[in-house]
Amino acid sequence: MLTHYLVGEDVQITFHWCGFFQSKELWQHEERRNPDYELMIGVEGVMHLEIEGKAVDLVPGMLLIIPPKAHFFGRKKSAQVRFYWLHFSTTNLKTVSSLDKRATWCLPLASQELLMDNEIALLQQLQTVKQQAYADNPLLNAYARTLLLSINEKQRALAMPKTTTHYLIEHVKNFLQSNYQNTLSVSAVANYFGYNQAYLSHLFAKEVGQSMTSYLIGIRLEAARQQLLTSVDSIEAVSNACGFEDSKYFSRVFSKQYGKSPRAYRQEKGQINQM
Q1: With contact defined as beta carbons under 8 Å apart, do 48 and 123 qualify?
Q2: Which CATH architecture has domain 162-275?
Q3: What sequence ranges are listed for the domain HTH araC/xylS-type (predicted)?
């Protein structure tokens, strides 16, 4: 069932309730059949579920939509589980087993391929609005509809013929380019985007052709190369400014990349006003 999609036309969304769950001890989801749809987005930890007889693990960054009357429960206890949830009902949506690119609405019942940054922000806003309005307020319905439309558009974009890299990777590359000066790790980047570290590392290497760490070092080395030629900063200062915590390590990888030490490279190329 969880490889299926919700498709339809002229879809209406009614908000029921939303929240953020965080376990403080070992916990597993109670057995349940909801009268409405429940959407979940994993943030931390792994929630082990069984849905209609199928084992499903909600991991960080994963989207899960459980249809009405589906039987589900926690398979086993988990520690430090955090996830956002939303209950809603809808008209004109039906469950199909394959992606229908012609449908105006097409929501996956489960996906780890969609970046859930905007959706988490919308859920946070929904929680704020919920505290200030009645449950049947049209504003709540509008927020819920916007959230699902956002997921719908990302799913449609993902289904388009692939001519470029996975759109998530472009976000990651832009993030690395904007934050290379800071201390970064693959796990920190994965947490920022709400994805499992192993999944994001594999996807990045597959799409880019090199590991995320190698790609980040390349960005830092190019920034350092330019700074060496356009400033009088010391080698150590250039190293620190470009995200290298160890100037000796910086000199070693710089020499490997450009065939000369940072000092020799600067002396050979001379001072340039700008690049």
Answers
A1: no
A2: Orthogonal Bundle (1.10)
A3: 170-268
State pLDDT tens for residues 150-199.
999 888 877 766 555 677 888 999 999 999 999 999 999 988 888 888 88
Contact by Cβ (8 Å): 224, 250: yes
Q: What's the token pair of residue 48?
A: 């082990």
Q: In CATH terms, are 5-159 and 162-275 the same topology?
A: no
Q: Which of 232, 234, 242 is nearest to 273 (CA)?
A: 232
Neighbours of 241 (CB within 10 A): 15
- Each residue's pLDDT tens digit, 7-63: 888 889 999 999 999 998 899 999 999 999 999 999 889 999 999 999 999 998 899
Asked: is 5-159 a CATH 2.60.120.280 domain? The reply is: yes
Q: What number of CA atoms fall less than 13 Å from residue 100's CA on the CB side?
A: 17
Angle at which helix 167-179 crosses helix 212-230, to 10 degrees, equals 40
